Amino acid sequence: MKELLNGYQCEICKTIYNQKEKAIECESQISEEPIKEIGFEFKARYYYGEGDFDYVDIPTRIYKISFSNHKINYELEQNLDGKFQSIIICYGNKDLLRLINSTKE
Ligand SMILES: [Zn+2]
Fold it and tell me: For 46-60, how does the pLDDT look when each residue is reduced to its tens digit (9 = 90+)?
């Protein structure tokens, strides 16, 4: 926690609070650690119909990892038509794990 002229700042997410207690509380929230590194590749399954085989597995890789509000954001590229493009974002480890495990159901 950092004391500023206009309040108190959480040093993790940089949010500024009027009350010192709020800044301390914010800072004590659990911050996530990355569970996968940049370049990690996997297949993400997407369903487009009702049938058991109406799905497509798209090669996906982690392109960038950033942090905001005590959470990790994974920016992902997907291989469509033989070329990595189309960036999607997973908010937090839970979101990423859901996508990684989508082909294992
Ligand atoms: Zn914070």
Answer: 999 888 889 999 999
